[in-house]
Design brief:
The complex is a heterodimer. Chain A is of the alpha/beta class. Helix content of chain A is 38%, strand content 22%. Chain A has 2 domains: 7-21 and 155-284, no CATH class; 39-81 and 83-100 and 116-130, no CATH class. Chain A is globular. In chain B, the strands form 9 sheets. Chain B has an 8-stranded parallel barrel. A 6-stranded mixed sheet of chain B has the order 19-18-20-21-25-24. The chains are: A alpha/beta, B alpha/beta. The interface between A and B is large, with 44 and 50 residues.
Chain lengths: 285, 719
């Protein structure tokens, strides 16, 4: 899925920092005391605790440890609602298992799947969670990487994500697929540098040029910066997205999409469903 | 016509070269644009270009290479000739490992079809490096097949470009390998347990001990022959007596890296010649164990370091500068960010501006900007891959290099009276005690988790000692580092391996000491003190050497305390434990009938030894330490050190460079807020701002207001 000679080029100087800043926006808001906490990392050997600290603040916490079956007591004692208890040999076992199975010439997604499988096998053996989780998340992730992801990779297309602000292009990212391989990561800087402050009216021409340059049909999503910030803050609420779409602050092109009337009806339907209590807007709970 | 490294500079025919270089990877940029791009590099003010010369790019079949005959963008000779036409010097970095964000980091893929050359974990599994876009098994540099394959490449490369070395050509230096550090899997018990590594381990023991009997005695084992010695696979000593067995394996990790470099260096020397500058670069700013800077400089001309700092990495850069400029023959940054790695945290031009000046402020004398020319898998450089430029980035480099030239950085050095000692035996113990292998302290340092405490993931086990020495050593080291910083002391960070002569340049050495300390370290420190230096030791008296045999060279000069208090608060600073001595009190504790001091001082011929027996609490914030300023100042005075330039706001940092002719003050605001402070104890007179040309008048102090993330350099001038 990812060729070893993947082309990562013309990222510009501003696109990636701006996109990171955009997506970090939500993280930078003031956090409550509870959000600033944990989880608690406990490293042990048998019944001996070797290291116990808040993962987020690296602050050491004193605990009385009497085995991994008593994690609930530690949670009560320390006030941490989440605990990760790891045997000192856990990472070594994961790396050794993966090291024995991995192949250097395999696709990166398959290599990652090997690591996830090895991790999955350690859950409940050398890695324990409180509250308990099952092996399935990591096994399922590994299965998805191996079996499902390769099947949903587009055949030939260049996907563009463009953020605009006040009639100018603010940032972009483009991902190209050819023969079901992610072979390209680039930006609109490949055709016009962002430092030249291109206007949104040039966007169609820029999309055409980048599509021609890599000989791939374009699929694009263009969003106004304020709308993107709002969507990120609301964890990509579909209702909010449809509202922006109808206002023209979010545009899509090249996808098989319903007509504007279709989108409006869909929005209305989702809005009604949301009103009835179905939790589309999880962040506002 | 010669090349050498001396007096903190790279000399070309005896003249110091300003080694500020521009990274340009020729094979990733259209060859038709090389001339134009090189002109632009020169216009920025650079005189030196640096490039990797990747094995995997030039090798087309085993033993067959393309140096431009098939693919013109691989024309390394043409590239070097183009550099020569522009009068640009060149540094080449032919690997074998180069990273450069290329798949398999510059190793030809075919090598990975030979599992016998892979490094092996403690359980015998191949050691994979998690890298994008492909993970790969790391090769053992001590396998003869690997070395002979690499030598074939170097032989062919030297045939192609060997006659373009100085003075006939532009090449002035060659980097030996890249970031050689066991491929970031640097935990001592992670790897390498391959056959050739274990052979090398036995050779290391032979060199260290000389006889099987002595190894057996040190390891508390009955070895029948050298071939029966097997290394420990995990760190689980049950008594202190078992520690030497484990610590030898940890020390071997340093030897393993040094010998890797020595082998690659030998190959390069055979084909490029002896009379040349060879160097290497560590991947992190603070190259402590398993890296051994002084060990490498025994055979290479200098050891450099890499850093990709954001503004908020100031502390890491400061610590690295203090260490490397004290330890290295030529304090140089072999990779320093210009632009960004495609998957890294984005750095802005403001980051580059601040970090570049911070690097100079803390003693670096040369920087290779990586990358000046943008290329695939890299973005945001001043020159794009099509030869066009980013004007704001170009302006920064023009201004900065002009500033470097005004500073005359080759000729000035930081003034430092104090040395904070990194004690290698405790650092090794901390490496061994790092939990969750293959994670290692070096990896945490290299990947910029600088906000984490130094004791992160360090086990609090005693390992047969009377206390968790590894964790407590890191805590004490951090305490002194903060104390010296907050008092504005001009200090360096170093190790005893810098040698007695270099150690003696400092008036005061602060060395954390615990129950064991190598006999050699103790001897050197005592000798330093006897020659007139002041030593601060503590919180424990060393009574054992590294083999856990009773040796108390320093202990004999450390006074016995009168009293001990646990969980004590001194001026608002928490200590887990403090020893008190009966002598004229510098600090009194409430409720005591007779005055006690927290320092016990003895004389050692011309010098003095001060026992500071205090173990700080695990976390001490900077502000609370301000209360201990008077104590630190009195310690400095006892070492004969006059009070330093002191900022009324400890967040505003001061560094002084001077020689017989010049005095330059660096002032830094490493915070996101504007700082206004009075810097006292500055000599009176006029100071010239080396960037703006503005004149500042001092009447013994300077009133400074600095914007967020700003550094100012002021040179004292005749009125």
């Amino acid at each position: 899925m990812i060729p070893p000679d993947i082309l990562i080029s013309d990222l510009g100087a501003l696109n990636y920092p701006r996109l990171c800043e955009l997506f970090a926006g939500k993280r930078n808001r003031p956090q409550s005391e509870d959000e600033n906490k944990g989880p608690l990392l406990l490293i042990f050997r048998g019944l001996k605790p070797l290291y116990c600290a808040d993962i987020k603040n690296f602050e050491k916490i004193k605990i009385s440890f009497s085995g991994i079956s008593r994690l609930e007591e530690i949670a009560k004692e320390t006030g941490y609602s989440r605990i990760v208890a790891v045997s000192e040999s856990a990472l070594e076992r994961i790396f050794d298992k993966a090291g024995g199975r991995i192949r250097h010439d395999e696709d990166l997604t398959k290599q990652l799947a090997v690591f996830l499988e090895a991790l999955s096998q350690e859950i409940g053996t050398t890695i324990f969670f409180y509250p308990k989780i099952k092996k399935s998340p990591f096994a399922a992730m590994s299965f998805s990487l191996r079996k499902i992801l390769p099947k949903i990779v587009p055949k030939d297309a260049i996907f563009l994500f463009v953020v605009t602000e006040n009639d100018h292009i603010w940032a972009s990212i483009a991902i190209g697929f050819k023969d079901r391989q992610l072979f390209l990561i680039t930006t609109l800087d490949a055709v016009v540098p962002l430092e030249d402050n291109p206007r949104t009216e040039e966007l169609d021409e820029m999309i055409r040029k980048i599509s021609e340059r890599f000989d791939l049909p374009p699929r694009y999503l263009v969003v106004e910066k304020s709308a993107a910030e709002s969507l990120i803050a609301r964890k990509f609420s579909p209702v909010q997205a449809l509202i922006f779409y109808n206002r023209g602050e979010l545009k899509v092109g090249g996808f098989l999409a319903p007509s504007k009337i279709g989108w409006t009806l869909l929005t209305l339907g989702i809005w009604l469903l949301a009103k009835t209590g179905i939790p589309f807007k999880r962040t506002e709970q | 016509m010669s090349l050498s490294v001396s007096g903190g500079s790279l000399l070309i025919d005896g003249t110091p070269l300003s080694l500020f270089s521009a990274s340009f990877q020729y094979w990733r940029v259209p060859y038709q644009t090389w001339d134009d791009v090189l002109k632009k590099i020169k216009e920025l003010g650079f005189r030196v270009v640096e490039t990797y010369v990747p094995w995997s790019v030039h090798e087309i079949f085993p033993g067959e290479y393309d140096f431009g005959r098939i693919d013109p963008k691989k024309d390394i000779r043409g590239f070097l000739e183009a550099c020569a036409r522009e009068n640009l010097y060149v540094i080449i970095r032919p690997g074998p490992h180069i990273n450069a964000e290329i798949t398999y980091f510059g190793f030809p893929e075919r090598l990975f079809h030979h599992p016998e050359i892979f490094c092996r974990s403690a359980n015998g599994a191949p050691v994979y490096l998690p890298a994008v876009p492909r993970m790969f098994p790391v090769p053992c540099y001590h396998h003869p097949k690997f070395l002979s394959e690499f030598e074939t490449y170097i032989n062919n490369l030297a045939s192609e470009i060997g006659n373009l070395t100085h003075p006939a050509g532009p090449i002035i230096a060659i980097q030996v390998d890249n970031e050689c550090c066991k491929f970031f899997r640097a935990h001592p018990f992670d790897h390498d347990y391959s056959k050739y590594s274990i052979r090398l381990y036995r050779r290391f023991l032979k060199e260290k001990y000389g006889s099987l009997g002595l190894v057996s005695a040190a390891h508390r084992k009955e070895y029948e022959s050298w071939s029966r010695i097997d290394p420990p696979r995990s760190f689980q000593p049950s008594s202190a007596e078992e520690l030497p067995l484990y610590m030898d394996w940890v020390e071997y990790g340093e030897y393993y890296i040094n010998e890797s470099l020595r082998s690659i260096h030998r190959i390069m020397k055979r084909h490029f010649g002896e009379e040349f500058v060879y160097f290497h670069n560590y991947p992190c700013a603070f190259p402590s164990t398993p890296l051994d800077l002084k060990g490498v400089e025994r055979f290479l001309d200098f050891e450099s370091v890499d850093m990709y700092p954001s503004k908020s990495s100031y502390d890491t850069l400061k610590m690295g500068g203090k260490y490397v400029s004290a330890m290295s023959r030529f304090p140089h940054l072999a990779e320093f960010a210009s632009g960004n790695l495609f998957m890294g945290t984005p750095l802005t031009l403001d980051d580059h501006r601040f970090a570049s000046k911070a690097a100079l402020m803390h003693g670096f004398k040369g920087i290779n900007y990586y990358m000046i020319v943008e290329r695939e898998r890299w973005y945001g450089s001043p020159i794009r891959n099509d030869g066009t430029t980013r004007e704001d980035h170009c302006k920064f480099f023009k201004d900065f290099l002009a500033f470097v030239s005004r500073l005359n950085v080759e000729k000035i050095s930081p003034r430092r009276d104090v040395l904070l000692l990194v004690v290698r035996e405790y650092e090794r113990l901390a490496d061994a005690a790092t939990l969750l292998k293959p994670l290692s302290r070096m990896t945490i340092n290299a990947f910029g988790l600088e906000k984490t405490p130094r004791s992160i993931l360090i086990s609090e086990e005693n390992y047969g000692l009377s206390e968790p020495v590894a964790e407590r050593y890191l805590r004490v080291f951090e305490f002194w580092y903060k104390m010296l910083s907050i008092c504005g002391a001009h200090f360096a960070v170093g190790e005893v391996s810098m040698g007695l002569e270099n150690l003696s340049k400092y008036k005061l050495v602060v060395a954390p000491t615990f129950e064991f300390m190598s006999g050699k370290t103790q001897e050197i420190l005592l000798e330093y003190s006897k020659r007139g230096g002041a030593l601060i030791l503590g919180p424990r008296k060393p009574s054992l050497n590294e083999r856990m045999e009773p040796v108390s060279i320093l202990g004999e000069y450390m006074r016995d305390p009168e009293a001990r208090k646990q969980r004590i608060d001194l001026f608002g600073v928490e200590f887990d434990e403090v020893f008190f001595f009966s002598e004229p009190a510098s600090v009194k504790t409430s409720g005591d009938e007779r005055p006690l001091s927290i320092t016990g001082e003895t004389n050692s011929e011309a010098g003095k030894i001060i026992f500071f027996g205090a173990l700080p609490a695990p976390r001490i914030d900077l502000e609370s330490l301000e209360a201990l300023k008077p104590l630190m100042e009195s310690l400095l005075l006892r070492a004969g050190i006059e009070p330093h330039n002191l900022s009324s706001d400890p967040r505003l940092e001061v560094s002084v460079f001077e020689d017989s002719e010049r005095m330059i003050l660096f002032l830094a605001n490493p915070t996101p807020k504007t700082l206004t402070a009075r810097v006292s104890r500055v000599s009176s007179g006029a100071f010239l701002n080396l960037e703006t040309g503005e004149i500042w008048e001092s009447s013994g102090s300077l009133e400074i207001s600095l914007c967020p993330w700003d550094i100012m350099a002021l040179e004292r001038v005749e009125e």
